[in-house]
Amino acid sequence: MAAAVSSLSSLGIPDGDGGSSSEEEEAGPSAAAAAAAEQRREERLRRFRELHMKRYEACKLNSQEVVEEDKRLKLPPNWEAKKARLEWELKVQEKKKECAARGEDYERVKLLEISAEDAERWERKKKKKNPDLGFSDYAAAQLRQYQRLTRQIKPDLEQYEKLKEQYGEALYPTSDSLLHGTHVPSKDGVDRMVADLEKQIEKREKYSRRRPYNDDADIDYINERNAKFNQKAERFYGKYTAEIKQNLERGTAV
């Protein structure tokens, strides 16, 4: 038997065992390649699912943002400031209730929570703030003066209670009320009014902006209106027309 096998081998004819090993060697690389291809396919599918989920999340977030933007556009322009103000007022109300429940003064507790740096910054801001923005029109100037004068008034609550008992509902007039000749001011009230008017007159005279008249100045105008116009022209164009004016005065102008 051994001689027969050796003779077959010498003739180049493979026996049964040699054929099965070569088939396994040929099938091994093809199976590995198929497994690698399947793995790559699974990896591609996984990445595709991830991209699909990301796209879905992006579309969802985009839709939510569009809805929120539409809501914001329909709100008033100063809604954010109003919302912050309302939230602050709610916090203040809750803090006041807590202080009242503990029997504490809210203003005192609030001042204790303010730091020294914040207090100094607020004081500097108050000093820099100038409520008088200057003259805009006569109505605004009159209103500003009225507010300044009313801030100086110190009400007499005792006299107010007496008048309230004396006149009753007539103390609060309506459009149909006739008050002329029914009220006589007290002597102290008249004196206060006179003193206040004298103070206003004195202050008005002190801050008068009338320019003094110069007798030695050249008269180059025919009336007051022309004088004002010449002053404005001199202020803006005087440095350009000085030489021309001198030539005209000397008679050497060409």
UniProtKB/TrEMBL annotation:
Keyword terms? mRNA processing, mRNA splicing, Nucleus, Spliceosome
| Keyword field contains NAD | no
**Any one GO biological process:** mRNA splicing, via spliceosome
Q: Where in the cell is it found?
A: Nucleus
Location of the region described as Disordered in the Swiss-Prot/TrEMBL record: 1-39
Q: Where is the composition biased (Low complexity)?
A: 1-14, 28-37
Identify the Pfam families for this entry: SYF2
- Recorded GO CC terms: catalytic step 2 spliceosome; post-mRNA release spliceosomal complex; Prp19 complex
Concerning PANTHER family, the annotation shows: GCIP-INTERACTING PROTEIN P29, PRE-MRNA-SPLICING FACTOR SYF2
Q: What does this protein do?
A: Involved in pre-mRNA splicing as component of the spliceosome.
The entry describes its oligomerization and partners as: May be part of a spliceosome complex.
- Give the family per the record: Belongs to the SYF2 family.
- Protein name per the record: Pre-mRNA-splicing factor SYF2
State the organism of origin: Oxyruncus cristatus
The protein's gene is named: Syf2
